[in-house]
Amino acid sequence: RKEVEQDPGPFNVPEGATVAFNCTYSNSASQSFFWYRQDCRKEPKLLMSVYSSGNEDGRFTAQLNRASQYISLLIRDSKLSDSATYLCVVNPHSGYALNFGKGTSLLVTP
Amino acid sequence: NAGVTQTPKFQVLKTGQSMTLQCAQDMNHNSMYWYRQDPGMGLRLIYYSASEGTTDKGEVPNGYNVSRLNKREFSLRLESAAPSQTSVYFCASSEGDGAYNEQFFGPGTRLTVL
Questions:
Q1: Across the interface, do B48 and A102 touch by the CB < 8 Å criterion?
Q2: B58 touches chain A (CB under 8 A)
Q3: Residues of chain B positioned with their CB less than 8 A from the CB of A87
Q4: pLDDT tens-digit series, residues A53-105
Q5: Rounded to whole angstroms, how far apart are CA atoms A6 and A101?
Q6: pLDDT tens across A10-29, in order?
Q7: Å from B21 to nearest chain A CA?
Q8: Which candidate, A108, A42, A105, places its Cα nearest to that of B9?
């Protein structure tokens, strides 16, 4: 079983739509969780960290369910500029390694 | 403030050739990393350096060597390139423990091994 699994998509949504991405992780001892964004042929960039209490940054909301080993990202009022690949990232244990999911592709259309 | 820079941006090698990928950061970060990204595989950690003077293997270290030249620079060397090493290579850095702190990535090096 892969350590971090994501639905690869693509998710095609119209501008203004709400879209949700899900991610599951296999190691129950995982310590930290992130969503990174990667534009086509560019480097990944941190979108947001994911905290146990859930967190929100503008149109983006991330949630963590430790019991189900599940992370989600909700994007409200989608913009054309949100088109990208969203990477779910998990630290499986203390230390420096991060496990990256393969990413979920989002295309927002006019 | 350039962040993380990588050279070269593109490279084509023949099987058996060697090369070094260069990475530098100007953010005074302690930790640096090398990843490779292949289609359908996600990013995988090759090597990392938690601090100047230390290096450790990641998930896929075979066929690679690294050097933490100083606090700013972390290079990745392919001694005898193989077609399986065709990939996009990203260097990253973080202020402290990269498992808890944001990792900043360079623009990547696209390597093709024929």
A1: no
A2: yes
A3: 42-43
A4: 889 999 999 999 999 999 999 999 999 999 999 999 998 765 677 889 999 99
A5: 6
A6: 999 999 999 999 999 998 88
A7: 16
A8: A42
